[in-house]
Design brief:
By secondary structure, the chain is an alpha/beta fold. The chain has 2 domains: 3-186 and 300-336, 3-Layer(aba) Sandwich (Rossmann fold), CATH 3.40.50.300; 193-296, Cytidine Deaminase, domain 2 (3-Layer(aba) Sandwich), CATH 3.40.140. Helix content is 27%, strand content 27%. It has 8 helices and 20 strands. The strands form 5 sheets. A 9-stranded mixed sheet has the order 6-7-5-2-10-1-11-19-20, sandwiched between helices. The chain has a 5-stranded mixed sheet with strand order 13-12-14-16-18, covered by helices on one side. Strand 12 and strand 13 form a beta hairpin.
Length: 343
């Protein structure tokens, strides 16, 4: 059900949850089982820690991760012995975590596993490519809570988003927040290749800058955009075309830009990708009405959404109602309830 949206199309796929307990591990297990049925060799990486029976933060039960023989996994020296699968170590990498060195292993005898991987985008990408070289046909990256960077296009070819009742007791709020993330992941990108190259160079340098119509770069001497919207606003000139913000884009930055100058309507704010935007849905819609325009250097390829009608706090929605509401508002991306079955 999920596999058909990714197999033979993408090599590195991330699953990213909108919150803890939004059904991300259920989606991962589903892909593992579907891959077993199709005899596809999977590689699995986590950007946090996964597979433990009890969530160490919320102390709620978590679905365990079952890996079949032949699966290639990334884990750490400390977590290796905590599962009951037999693992053959293939490669001990140079990357370290608080849970020990990261290693790549092949499951020799199927069983439950605990996994943990690197934190940075470059390390995750490197590990995924290494797994492909070692025989994985497809690598799934399990994105950690509040680290949507694992959905970043620089790391993965495609992204699956997990959402659900855990976000709110109000079903309409769950739908609203999910639509908001879908919209952020699908923001328009910079199309012109020369402009993109210049913007990427500035972005990689970590500097905040305006770029004018002749593509001249005008650096703004601030370390971060946080609490500096008024300074950015004062740097928007008559010929400014773009404002480039390499870090996070938050509500108060845009509010301060709007208060400082009317010229914001004539420029595009550019961020790396949709995971860098942390603005609530209602504020985002207000900014759009005010004429704020945001573009990305790298669009995120969202290929499926999974919904979980159950929350660990004990409340739940009627499964069909949540699925139907999501599908009504989200037309062009497949929405699935993996427990309910069907599309």
């Amino acid at each position: 059900m999920l596999l058909k949206h990714i197999y033979n199309k993408y090599k590195i796929i991330s699953i990213v949850g909108m919150a803890k307990n939004s059904g991300k591990t259920v989606a991962l297990n589903h892909l593992i089982h579907e891959s077993i049925d199709q005899d596809i060799k999977l590689g699995i990486i986590s950007t946090g820690r996964d597979g433990e029976a009890l969530d160490l933060v919320t102390e709620t039960e978590k679905p365990k991760i079952y890996a079949e023989e032949g699966t290639i996994i990334a884990t750490t020296t400390e977590l290796l012995s905590l599962g009951d699968a037999t693992i053959e170590i293939m490669n001990i990498t140079e990357y370290r975590t608080p849970l020990g060195e990261i290693l790549i292993g092949r499951v020799k005898d199927g069983g439950y596993i605990q996994i943990s991987g690197p934190q940075t985008a470059a390390e995750i990408k490197d590990l995924a490519n290494l797994m492909l070289k070692l025989g994985a046909e497809m690598v799934i990256i399990d994105g950690a809570i509040d680290r949507r960077s694992s959905a970043a296009p620089s790391i993965t070819d495609a992204t699956i988003l997990s959402t659900g009742a855990v976000l709110s007791r109000d079903i309409n709020k769950v739908v609203e927040e999910t639509i908001h993330i879908v919209n952020l992941f699908n923001l328009p990108q910079i199309e012109d290749s020369m402009e993109k190259e210049i913007l990427e160079k500035v972005l990689n340098s970590g500097g905040i800058a305006t770029i004018d119509e002749n593509l001249n770069i005008h650096p703004i001497e601030i370390k971060t955009a946080l609490n500096c919207g008024h300074i950015i606003g004062n740097h928007i000139g008559k010929n400014s075309k773009y404002i480039l913000i390499p870090g996070s884009l938050v509500k108060n930055t845009i509010e301060d830009i709007i208060r400082t100058t009317n010229r914001y309507k004539k420029v595009d704010i550019v961020v790396a990708d949709g995971t860098k935007i942390f603005i609530p849905p209602k504020d985002w819609l207000k900014f759009m009405r005010y004429g704020v325009k945001v573009k990305v250097l790298n669009p995120i390829n969202l290929v499926a959404i999974t919904v979980n009608p159950y929350a660990p706090q004990g409340y739940y929605f009627e499964a069909r109602e949540l699925l139907d509401k999501m599908k009504y508002y989200i037309k062009d991306i497949p929405v699935v309830d993996l427990v309910l079955g069907g599309e």
